[in-house]
């Protein structure tokens, strides 16, 4: 969707909590 991966990551980070990201990364 986003042309720049950095922009997408920043948007996801703001939308998702840091804990959620940690869990998702671990599950991945």
Describe the structure.
The structure is a single chain. The chain is an all-alpha fold and 28 residues long. The chain is built from 2 helices and no strands. It has helices at 5-15, 18-27. The radius of gyration is 10 Å and the shape is elongated. Residues 1-28 are annotated as: Disordered.
Give a concise summary.
The chain has 2 helices and no strands.
N to C succession of SSEs: HH
The secondary-structure class comes to mainly alpha
Annotation field: number of helices? 2
Shape: elongated
Radius of gyration: 10 Å
Average pLDDT works out at 58
How far is the first residue's CA from the last residue's CA?
A: 21 Å
Instruction: Tally the beta strands.
Output: 0
Low-confidence runs of at least 5 consecutive residues: none
Tell me the β content: under 5%
How would a textbook summarize the main sheet?
Answer: none
Helical coverage, percent range? over 70%
Region (Disordered): 1-28
């Amino acid at each position: 969707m986003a042309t720049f991966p950095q922009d997408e990551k920043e948007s996801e980070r703001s939308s998702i909590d840091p804990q959620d990201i940690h869990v998702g990364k671990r599950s991945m």
